[in-house]
Design a protein that fits this description.
By secondary structure, this protein is an alpha/beta fold. Helices cover about 40% and strands about 15% of the residues. β1, α2 and β2 form a beta-alpha-beta unit. The structure holds 5,10-methenyl-6,7,8-trihydrofolic acid, 3-methyl-2-oxobutanoic acid and magnesium ion.
């Protein structure tokens, strides 16, 4: 199949910072496979996150903790083969960067080398500063992630909103400023009060991308399967569903079953 060369200008780390400066909001969605990533990229989504939420959405685990670096590389390489325009960010999975900065750099290099991704994301603040420095020194762009960091779910105990108390809010602002100073190109803020997210977005010059962090930030991210309505049992307040695919797909599959049983499918034009 021949296809005309795409005219798209690629999204870069620099263009995201320019978007914050100019006030254009950044759109980001997850993708874990080639077919979905092709649709997300073609729709004009600026950033594709190969999230460790693949652990939940793709593999059916309860948390993000079990997914491995090899599995993240598999997902990321599938996504990379699909994209013409979007910037691709890959989550470093739990256990691939927390031990020490050298391990963090080794993991980031494996992702970049084996998947062709453009950048990595790590969860945490001051405790991972040296790891971020190492990765940045190797020329790998880093996105931060603060607030509800799901790899720490057993420390938090629940997926409830973070940083409602003054002490955690102050530490979060400090961490965001540190991530900017260290050289991160953007930060995800997950499930924190909208007013705190605004304060963070106003106090750093790198883009702040929110999920459950309100409107006063520089961009929004959602898990693709959530916004398409495929994960019908996942109902956080921050989620807006743009389709009800769980229902639509179920109906389509029921129709297929019925057509097979009734000998309606295949018909005369659907055979050789
Ligand atoms: N499908 C999916 N979507 C996500 O957004 C997502 C994942 N998986 N896996 C990794 C993390 C975990 N995330 C989560 C998980 C739970 C809530 C949540 O709000 N859950 C419930 C209970 C909250 C509570 O205990 O107070 C809710 O009712 O909203 C939010 C984000 C975000 N990420
Ligand atoms: C929810 C987003 C920010 C994420 O980290 C993921 O999908 O893994
Ligand atoms: Mg993640």
């Amino acid at each position: 199949m021949s296809k005309a060369k795409k005219e798209y200008k690629r999204v870069t780390v620099k263009s995201l910072v320019d978007m914050k400066t100019s006030g254009e909001k950044i759109s980001m969605l997850t993708a874990y496979d080639y077919t979905m990533a092709k649709i997300v990229d073609g729709a004009g989504v600026d950033v594709i996150l190969v999230g460790d939420s693949a652990s939940n959405v793709m593999a059916g685990h309860e948390t993000t903790l079990p997914i491995t670096l090899d599995q993240m590389i598999y997902h990321a390489s599938s996504v990379i083969r699909a994209i013409d325009r979007a910037l691709v960010v890959v989550d470093l999975p739990f256990g691939s960067y927390q031990s020490d900065p050298k391990e963090a750099l080794r993991s980031a290099i494996r992702i970049m080398k084996e998947s062709g991704a453009h950048s990595v994301k790590l969860e945490g603040g001051k405790e991972i500063k040296e790891s971020i420095k190492r990765i940045l020194n190797a020329g790998i762009p880093v996105m931060g992630h603060l607030g509800l960091t799901p790899q720490s779910i057993y420390k938090f105990g629940t997926y409830t909103v973070r940083a409602k108390e003054e002490e955690e809010a102050e530490q979060l602002i400090k961490d965001a400023k540190m991530l900017e100073r260290t050289g991160c190109f953007a930060i995800v803020l997950e499930k924190i009060p909208a007013s705190l997210a605004k304060q963070v977005a106003d106090s750093v010059s790198i883009p702040i991308i929110g999920i459950g962090a309100g409107p006063y930030v520089d961009g929004q991210v959602l898990v693709l399967h959530d916004m398409l309505g495929m994960t019908h049992e996942f109902n956080p307040r921050f989620l807006r569903r743009y389709l009800n695919l769980y229902e639509d797909m179920t109906n389509a599959m029921k129709q297929y079953v019925s057509d097979v049983k009734s000998l309606d499918f295949p018909n005369e034009s659907e055979q050789y």
